[in-house]
Design a protein that fits this description.
The structure is a single chain. The protein is globular, with a radius of gyration of 16 Å. The protein has a 6-stranded mixed beta sheet with strand order 1-2-6-3-4-5, with helices on both faces. The chain has a single domain (8-199), classed as glycerate kinase, domain 1 (3-Layer(aba) Sandwich). The longest helix is centred in the N-terminal third of the chain and has 22 residues, at 8-29. The chain has helices spanning 8-29, 41-57, 74-88, 108-119, 153-157, 171-178, and strands at 62-66, 95-101, 128-134, 144-150, 181-183, 193-199. With 200 residues, it is of the alpha+beta class. It contains 6 helices and 6 strands, in the order H-H-E-H-E-H-E-E-H-H-E-E.
């Protein structure tokens, strides 16, 4: 979903870049498990992150690769990731923050939705994109690998600005309606979570 205050072309390009970087990670992981030799999952994760980092350097002036402390709670984890984005907001030029983690942690779609909610009241002063996806598992509903959100996501889902309080929200249907689901076209041999934050 596109923020009305940002250039539609810029946001569309950033979303395409994030999806391309995610595909690069999947492509880097797929050959690693196709032969007789199988890498330790940590080694595969490092190979994936290295490939995404190299690809991101072709488009972004600053690329940061980090290992976040992701909690089981999506809201807490989203706030930790948003702090990374806020700290990087002062860096001149475009920024990519690449994060890899094991299968443990919150649902990718719930993490993306919580990031969009937290960012709606944050102090990010430029267009941003957040992608959270699983490389190895096709999640059943809508064949979704996760979600990709931007600053227009919340205004699309809750056009009147009223968010539901005190009840669990299923992020899949909400993100499907806003066009923010990350479709799982193909899966890698190794399952890992890949989170990307792009700042224009």
């Amino acid at each position: 979903m596109i923020d009305p205050h940002s250039s539609p072309q810029l946001i569309t390009g950033m979303r395409a870049l994030a999806k391309g970087l995610f595909a690069t990670g999947i492509n880097a992981l797929s050959p690693l498990g196709s032969g007789k030799l199988h890498l330790h999952p940590k080694a595969a994760q490092l190979a994936c992150l290295h490939a995404v980092q190299d690809a991101a350097f072709e488009y972004c002036q600053t690329v940061m690769v980090t290992q976040p402390a992701i909690a089981g709670d999506a809201a807490i984890s989203a706030c930790e990731l948003l702090k990374l984005a806020e700290d990087a907001d002062a860096i001149d030029g475009s920024v990519a923050i690449v994060l890899g983690r094991s299968k443990a942690g919150p649902c990718n779609k719930r993490l993306a939705l919580n990031f969009a909610l937290a960012a709606a009241t944050a102090r990010l002063h430029r267009p941003w994109i957040f992608l959270s996806g699983m490389t190895g598992d096709q999640q059943c509903r809508y064949r979704s690998a996760g979600a990709i959100v931007d600053s227009g996501t919340c205004s699309w889902i809750w056009p009147l600005g009223r968010q539901p309080d005190g009840r669990t929200v299923d992020p899949t249907s909400l993100l499907a309606e806003s066009g923010d689901l990350l479709l799982a076209d193909r899966c890698a041999s190794y399952a890992m979570n890949l989170d990307l934050i792009l700042l224009a």
